[in-house]
Amino acid sequence: MKNTLSDRLNNLAPSATLAMSQRSGELKASGVDVINMSVGEPDFNTPDHIKEAGKKAIDDNWTRYSPVPGYPDIKKAIVEKLKKENNLEYTTDEVLVSNGAKQCVCNAVLALVNAGEEVIIPAPYWVSYPQMVKLAEGTPVYVEAKIEADFKITPAQLESVITPKTKLIILCSPSNPTGSVYSQEELEGLAEVIKKHDDLYVLADEIYEHINYVGKHASIASIPGMKERTIIINGVSKAYAMTGWRIGFMAGPQWIVKGCNKLQGQYTSGPCSMSQKAAVVAWNADQSCVEEMRKAFERRRDLIVKLAKEVPGLEVNVPQGAFYLFPKCSSYFGKSFGDRKINTSSDLAMYLLEEGHVATVGGDAFGSPECFRMSYATSDENIVEAISRIKAALAKLK
Ligand code: PMP
Ligand code: GLU
């Protein structure tokens, strides 16, 4: 049969982070000792008290369909989390629980963006944002944040790309893939520009909120006049090492949440019942596990920054949050080893995988072709070994 996939699907790029991780897994299965720094997920196990809650939920028969937006107790736990941690007042009708933060982002984009409307995405960006916008038949508009600017955009840059067709701006802080963190003052600067425009919304992806090395997380929704135009995205995947449980949430204006509820009701139904019960405990119980993991990530950040700065030809920015390093590697473009020539950061990532046995992700998929991404959510030993392998592999390029 002929391939007659829809244009919608033919125009969609596969997730580069997941593809590289799969490639690294295949190499590992074939016996190669690969260090996987491609996919971004905590290497910790889900804390025991949360696992126990998941097991108990099964025994207590929380095994049926849940309400589409989530059980009342998880929505209540989210409302309390937003009050306690972010000093934001939401009602349970302004919260929707989904199958991971990823579905929340996609729900919001599909709910708001019409064909031909523009969505501003600062680059470097998380790989899935532009693809989700394309699914909605919207147009991604990129604003380049350079390494010299700590990978952050300025209000003037934002202003210069807003048009009458702009519907949404996607901000991610702490950022995947750069680890940059916007301060309260920087967000206020961006908010000033946004507030000048009617019918302009912000999707604030705060999934790395707790993996922050500079202090208190700033949420753009807390700035006067912004809550009614902001959709906060967050979840348990990163803070509580719960990537496989698939629980994320959005908090935002009720009409948007209601729209997403309708979409989700036709598309996936309510999220996993027992995972919701475990997530309630994650948010309501003692939070010391979050700080323990954050501290470990900070120590690893310091280690990888120190080691990567010693690698000739890499320009390293110090990440202030998340667990990614995003060094500039373009000084290697045009160089070769044997018959392998490096023209792009994806070529470099493939070379590092095959020659150095370290899986990373080329910056092309993040809209920043001069850089590549390493996830340091792995052991100190792996970090030391990976950078030593990368250094040796890069030294062979002439
Ligand atoms: N946003 C960003 C910036 C991410 O890095 C991720 C991780 N994949 C997500 C959203 C999605 O998180 P989840 O695993 O909860 O779907
Ligand atoms: N957020 C992670 C990453 O960027 C998970 C993979 C994904 O969902 O893209 O690597």
What does this structure look like?
This protein has 398 residues and is of the alpha/beta class. The protein contains 13 helices and 14 strands. The strands form 4 sheets. Strands 2-8-7-6-5-3-4 form a 7-stranded mixed β-sheet, with helices on both faces. The model has no long low-confidence stretch (mean pLDDT 97). The structure holds 4'-deoxy-4'-aminopyridoxal-5'-phosphate and glutamic acid.
What is the rounded Rg? Answer: 21 Å
Mean of all residue-level pLDDT scores: 97
Beta-strand fraction estimate: 5-15%
* Count of strand segments: 14
Q: Residue ranges: pLDDT <50 for 5 or more in a row? A: none
Continuous helix count? 13
> How does the overall form come out from the CA principal axes?
globular
Supply the helix-strand structural class. alpha/beta
**Proportion in helices:** 40-55%
User: Biggest sheet, strands in spatial order?
Assistant: 2-8-7-6-5-3-4
> How far apart, in Å, are the first and last alpha carbons?
47 Å
Following the backbone from N to C, one meets helices and strands in this order, namely HHEHHEHEHEHEHEEEHHHEEEHEEEH
Question: Layout of helices and strands, plus pairs?
Answer:
Blueprint: H1 7-10, H2 16-29, E1 35-36, H3 48-59, H4 72-86, E2 95-98, H5 100-112, E3 118-123, H6 128-135, E4 139-144, H7 155-161, E5 166-172, H8 184-194, E6 201-205, E7 230-235, E8 248-251, H9 254-267, H10 273-284, H11 288-309, E9 324-325, E10 336-337, E11 340-341, H12 345-356, E12 358-359, E13 361-362, E14 372-375, H13 380-395
Parallel strand pairs: 1-12, 3-4, 3-5, 5-6, 6-7
Antiparallel strand pairs: 2-8, 7-8, 9-14, 10-11, 13-14
Helix pairs in contact: 3-10, 4-10, 5-6, 5-9, 7-8, 11-13, 12-13
The structure holds 4'-deoxy-4'-aminopyridoxal-5'-phosphate and glutamic acid (GLU).
Glutamic acid binds at residues 15, 17-18, 39-41, 102, 126-128, 176.
